[in-house]
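Example record used in the benchmark description.
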Amino acid sequence: MTASQQQDPGPAHPGEAHAGALGGRLNWLRAAVLGANDGVVSTAGLVVGVAGANSTSAELLTAGLAGLLAGSLSMAAGEYVSVSTQRDAEQAALAQERRELRLTPEAELAELAGMYEAKGLDAELARRVAVQLTAHDALAAHAETELGIDPDELTNPWHAAWASFLAFTVGALLPLLAIVLPPPNHRVWITVVAVLAALVVTGAASARLGGADPRRAVLRNVLGGGIAMAVTYAVGSILGASTD
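Model output (structure tokens):
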């Protein structure tokens, strides 16, 4: 084995996602999948319910577009507020850590060494590791070990908001087009089939990207969407019959 091979062994698991990359990916995944699923299910429930009342295509389109716009804006605003709150908390924690490092550096060094020791390192090695990491980047060492935060990878509320807005819009377009374009006699069952198929895809995709078993995610999506459409269609049919 050459010296260069000893010094640069390369990543042990090239395909494995590590803390920073996984955290960022899951944050985007959470916003995008939640937005897409909510867009599919909520819009499908809305238009299927309106269709149950024997509405015209124009009425379905109006209701669907109103639901799409309201839902996408609501998702974006909610995600922005949620992630902004998280970011504020992260920034406050980092500011506190900076103050402690400035005012009591020795106590912070001992604290960092103690945390490494608690993870399984012997006291001498834990101290050496803490000293070296503190010399390299004290804030990053404390933020990662003590707070679980990467100072260079704070969550971005605008990214999350746009991801939710776009995902909801894309998801909502499917049931909207499926209910408006087909002939009136076939529009409900075509919408149901299209929505359930979309929920299978989004459930499987979210599970795959997150490294989880897709069967449970698919089952949750399909059951939730199916129940939502069944309930709203029943309510729409009852209300439509009562107004005839």
